[in-house]
Input
Amino acid sequence: MGIALKKPDDEPGAAWPAIVIGLFVAFGGVLFGYDTGTISGILQMPVWQGLFAKGNVNAEGDPQVSSGDESLIVSILSLGTFLGALTAAPVADFFGRRLGLILSSAVVFNLGVILQTIATNQPPFIAGRFFAGYGVGLISAMIPLYQSETSPKWIRGTIVGAYQLAITIGLLLAAIVNNATQNRNDTGSYRIPVALQFVWSIVLCGGMLVLPETPRFHIKKGQNEKAAKALSKIRRLPIDHPGLVSELAEVRAAHNFEMSQKSSAGYADCFKGTIGKRLLTGCALQALQQLSGVNFIFYYGTSYFTRAGFQDPFIIQVITNTINVVSTFPGLYLVEKLGRRGLLLMGAIGMTVSQFIVAITGTAAGTTDLSAQRAAIAFVCIYIFFFASSWGPVAWVVTGELFPLKVRAKALSMTTATNWLLNFVIAFSTPYIVDEEHGNLQSRVFFIWGSCCALSIVFVWALIYETKGLTLEQVDELYGLVDKAWKSKEFRPALSFHEAQNEGGQGMSMRQMSIAQSERRASQAHAKDVSYAKEQP
Ligand code: BGC
Output
């Protein structure tokens, strides 16, 4: 195993166009990160508070949006993202992945941005947050879908992981832009950071206008010629190149096989058989990603840093966000070297240890022991390192490649919606669990995150299959033939759906097809040996 990521010799055509396409589409992650990151800064802006407080004032007599209104303004985005992620399936299956992305950003997301930019009172701002969130929810499920369906198998993890990198860059940008405009004494203080989002959506839409639709979407629709044209653009090969023809034939045959199984391609089928197991895996993976406590640190971590002597919230945001961006890079590499299972395991162990150390030092030290507080902060940063280099990107990578074509958009929309649902539940409930007046858990909340990370270790061991280096169709074969996740690393793809289809394998189970093919290959090899032996003098 060399150090560099290398294109396998048997893969026909060029890899760079698919890599460029996948990396470009990852840019949509900036919309995701920036949109979720910008509100906390806007809430601190005096001009915004003055306009949106509806006459409410704080103890000092300054305008202050009531906590009820503030919670609505913050959480309405999550409602939008959750619904948007669920709607991504019908949109991506009806309009296609490409047009779906264009409509989501150009129409839905931009409507949200327009409403927020023109707003000078709460109703349009709240409606704007909802629509922008809806757009982000749609995009957040469609990007990994588009990337998985276009990327070469040997670098798919890195490409989909780049989406997470863009999310982290979006979060960092939001912190920087808010800081730059917060002290303006006109509406530009919030309008500039909000309106800047047009730039992200124009870049994404502009690019999508020239990029191709995914060949797999065309196959799903039975548009074989369009599929060939799209793949020839991605691989830079003529439409009738044998490598291209056989790759498409395999995708088509695998899809036909899935469709020939008793089930159809409705929502009910997402819960049956190995697809049900995969859906459970994907939803649990996204839920545990959130339950690892990442957004507690990004949303509420300021007070921990303040106690350790960092008074400026901007410095805190820059520190945590920069670690988040930089640490994603090793993850992009390791996802193809250690594989999904190995990296998630390593990340879960690292996150568990760091969260428990934060919990223990934070709880034992109380608020007075500065050196213990600093030690806790150091481990918060180490936790971010482990998250960003493993569970951050890999949750998106794995959910993008888990499902068969016939239900991929539906299942992926449900795993993404689970991410947003947990994001909302945690953001909404943690103040109640942590605050003195309520649950008063304080630093002990890190025991909750630590325990969830410990659970993640068991989860990865029991349920995450190694999918590194497999085509999306071989992932179907993997789930069809290997019952236990911990045996998945030994799996070597051998089945040809195309061959099975030509041999009249319809109606067989995946296992029957695989046995029939290996028996036939063994007997062909044997016949060859016999005839060779006969030819010898
Ligand atoms: C998560 C977000 C989180 C971000 C942090 C994403 O993968 O889904 O909830 O804020 O990572 O980088």
Summary: The chain has a mean pLDDT of 91. Residues 475-535 form one domain.
